[in-house]
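Service request form, structural biology core

Requester: graduate student, group of Dr. S.
Request type: structure prediction, single chain
Budget code: on file
Notes: please return the result as structure tokens.

Sequence provided:
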Amino acid sequence: MKRRKSPRPEAASTGRRAPSASGPRDLRPPSIPASPAQQRALVDDALRLRDEQLDARVVYVEPDSETNAELDVITATVVRDVRRMQREGRAARRGSDESSDAIEAQTLSPAEREARTEAALTKNLAELLDKMVSEDRERLLRHQIERIQRRILQRFFNDEIFTDPRRSVRVDARVFGPDEAVYIAMRRHNDAMLATIDGFTYSDGTTRREAVERLRAIQQDLLKGVLGGRSAELERLLSIFADVLLVFLRRDLRSELSDVASRVIRESGVARTSAATYKIDALSFRPFRRVFERLFLERLLAGLSGSLERRLADPETGLRAETIRFAGDPGVYAEVCAVLCNGTYEYLHGEGFLDLPSSWKRHLLTDRA
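Core staff response, request fulfilled:
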């Protein structure tokens, strides 16, 4: 009697089909999962990666780290245009709200004051977020999207072509050319090759060093060919991603900002701990960030899923299935969250609405690259 084949296991987190031990992998592009449960799982994975990045960067960030000069110039130009309006807006809002806070402290019960604070913070946050994604700030939004594109490109090369020497090469790596196959094989066995070279007896003191340099030069030449062959395809993917992301920020997200602001303030509980109605203090930043980033990613995936999948599935894009699959990687959305949410915190801080812990101020300065 023939044994029945057991069904192929499915990945629980994002709905991806697991690779078979023998035979070709399922190459159907999943892009962003359609079901709410799978989208929530993708959000969880992205937030986990986001926290891992922050654990490595915020806690150990050096206060004297250099910032990216190119971004500093561009950002300074944009900020200069709105700095005067920020100062005027902060002064007017703070003067009015401080007077109101003093009166309320004498006349309202704690529950009434919390409700008033929640309403005021919600109103201020919604107005500031709306201004942040307005046409007046489109230049800065586009620049942030360019930063996202660079980070996604680097992640693709690190994860799919293994350009980061600190990362191990997957045993199921799929390759698209002889140079890529040889490069990945050399990366996988790099330590063994170096150990072999080191174990030889040399006739002079320079031969070993030259042998190591030759090995690295061969790897770099192979890598240049691999990157050149994949870059055009990645540029098409990133162009599509940038288009749908800008539409999401300017149209879809903007139409939901009142609800987003209300949920962030209510679910984070910052109105209970805030000492003022016009701003969120540094001690409340952690719960504010947790709720804000989860809601942002949930809205992002829901907003991008249809339009991004349609664009990526168009045969005229000429994208490989593996490249389309990469668009649903949690790491992609961790990078989007890092750039856009960090930019939001910096903007809200500049507007006088959000106080930041000192470690986060340093992190935002060093995260502009």
